[in-house]
Predict the structure of Protein DETOXIFICATION.
Amino acid sequence: MEEPLLNGGAVIGCPTAADYEPVKNFKEAKSVFWTETVKMWKIATPIVFNILCNYGTNSFTNIFVGHIGEIELSSVTISLSVIGTFSFGFMLGMGSALETLCGQAFGAGQVHMLGVYMQRSWLILSVTCVCLLPIYCFASPILKLLGQEEQIADLAGQFTILTIPQLFSLAINFPTQKFLQAQSKVSAFAWIGFVALVVHIVMLYVFIYVFDWGMTGAAIAYDISSWIIAIGQVIYVIGWCKETWHGLSRAAFIEIWAFVRLSLASAVMLCLEIWYMMSIIILTGHLDNAIVAVGSLSVCMNLNGWEAMLFIGINAAISVRVSNELGLGHPRAAKYSVYVTVFQSLLIGVLFMVIILITKDYFAIIFTSSAELQQAVAKLAFLLGITMVLNSVQPVISGVAIGGGWQAMVAYINIGSYYIFGLPLGYLLGYTANLGVTGVWSGMICGTALQTLLLLIVLYRTNWTKEVEQTTERMRKWGGQSISNEKIVDGV
């Protein structure tokens, strides 16, 4: 298929490329759609593969520990899903600031700044790890306060303390990933993640069954595999990223507070979304017949989690595309990439919803043999389908927000939609209206729908030329040199 016409006749993606011409007919729209589809999935596919490998690390840890005993399985699951998810979400959010800056700097041609930004993020995330240490050290009493049984909470606390090294690996892992993503060098860390997963499985078998180290062996394997990923990525950066890595630099300490503010905005934006979904389980746990309610909801959330792995990859890909094109001074390319990705993600979400509704009486068999639980899951299938559609669009727009540097604005939208509107409505429908888990989930879906609607309005009203100008100003301020006025282009 022909490349779409671009100003100056160049193809975007090259340093000298110009922006798209306005699309005037169906043929040009089809060409733009195909070009942007290829660009997005070329970035997203390795990222999704890497995320699935990381997801598999947690899954295989649970599987191997599950053969030690039921209490051990519950303890490790709670440690990874409560404490681990909390810290993972916060650290990922803090590292997401790098997606904005590295992506825009790379697009603007300031490739020398990528290594400086990464080092700055290493420093900030390392300090963040120290701030999170009390949660790890006092995991046991925290879990008891959340209502966990004493024996399970004590074992979970012990396992959590043993995974502190894994926490600090994230301070290296996330910034290095964002550094590579900004340059679309995503296949490297995908293979590193795969190798780490294979090594992790081997270590689990040796430490648990050969050395008989039990939960301690599982924690050691978890720590080592996490550091294999972090160190492997750093080795790749030093050895194969000569243009963007020029060694350690004192410039990493310059403008660090502005970087911290953007990192905190990113963390708050992401954590508000993660904690919102976790709060469904907490609210449901206080309903009558909580075992069935929580069990049925957990099955649905598990399936929703697998879909989320796909859209987290798309989130990262669209963030790279938007930040690169804004850095290049290409407002139309940024806009078109967003529209194409949102449309495709919506189609994927609808496809998942159709599959769920067709198999609503059967898919719960994979997770449970309880007929009562299977019936409860079938009743929630429609809500699961709607959630999958909403969750197909929302992560994409969040990725656009990261690519454009809108984190603070999205954080305010999340607070209003989720915690002022969605959670209270879910509580009223679930408890006051006595609709149970259906009411809780329906109310929270309304919160997600409101958030998605507001973000779509923001997206529709975005002036992409002004976004380019703001990117240019950000690069002038943090890049240490001026960007050519040629980056500022005519309006869309």
